[in-house]
Amino acid sequence: MKQPGESVALLCPGPSLKRLWSEDLFKEYKEVVAVNTAGHVFRHHWLCGVDRHIYQPFLDEQIPLPLLGFLTHKSWANQIKKKFPEKIVHLPGPYFGDDIRPEVEKKMKTNRCGYTMPNALWFCRSRYKTEEIHVYGFDVAIGSPDICNVTGDRKWLRFDRELIWLKEYWHKDILVNSDLSPEILAWLNDGKLDLKPAPLEKPEE
């Protein structure tokens, strides 16, 4: 475990986030990266997201802006730059097929990952070369609303696909603070990029 200020926190909006993260932890980290509605609730340096309900509150100045900037796709990037020129906006590599293995492209039938968490992890792995990454609130809570009571696409099929993308950028040294099942964490940590599905419990029809 590194000393305070030498690690990076990645906040996901799973139900456990409010229990496991607090503002007191903010100062313990070099930077804090928020995924989707986690950035509506907690202070952060970077906001990662692509959907309208994520960005509209920022554009309407209803909630505090990230301290440094955003990670999003081109259409939102243009709007953000126009309204908040002082903020940095990054376009994520995986959206545009950077470094995607041919096997992944064949299985997923695309070389563009449209899920926020894998892109946020890619951002952390690219930006922070030596810092530990501590993930909070990544629960894979199928069918449960997030910390802002947003349900969205939180179905089995979504997580089944998203986890395959996520494993492409995962590393076993990532510290997880969440209600993620031990089986899924072990699958992420096994280092096997064999595209086998995660051990998700499929809900009954």
Quickly describe the structure.
The chain is α/β, with parallel strands linked by helices and 205 residues long. Helices cover 34% and strands 13% of the residues.
Structure report:
Helix content is 34%, strand content 13%. The mean pLDDT is 86. The longest helix has 12 residues, at 116-127. The chain contains nine helices and seven strands, in the order E-H-H-E-H-E-H-E-H-E-H-H-E-H-E-H. It starts with 6 loop residues before the first strand and ends in a 16-residue tail after the last helix. The protein is an alpha/beta fold. The chain has helices at residues 17-20, 23-26, 38-41, 52-59, 74-83, 102-108, 116-127, 156-167, 182-189, and strands at residues 7-11, 31-35, 46-48, 69-71, 88-90, 132-136, 175-177. The relative contact order is 0.18. Helix 5 (74-83) links the parallel strand 4 and strand 5. A seven-stranded parallel sheet has the order 5-4-3-2-1-6-7, with helices on both faces.
Helix content: 25-40%
| Major pleated sheet | 7 strands, parallel
Number of helices: 9
Query: What structural class do you assign from the helix and strand content?
Result: alpha/beta
Draw up the topology in text.
Elements: E1 7-11, H1 17-20, H2 23-26, E2 31-35, H3 38-41, E3 46-48, H4 52-59, E4 69-71, H5 74-83, E5 88-90, H6 102-108, H7 116-127, E6 132-136, H8 156-167, E7 175-177, H9 182-189
Parallel strand pairs: 1-2, 1-6, 2-3, 3-4, 4-5, 6-7
Helix pairs in contact: 7-8
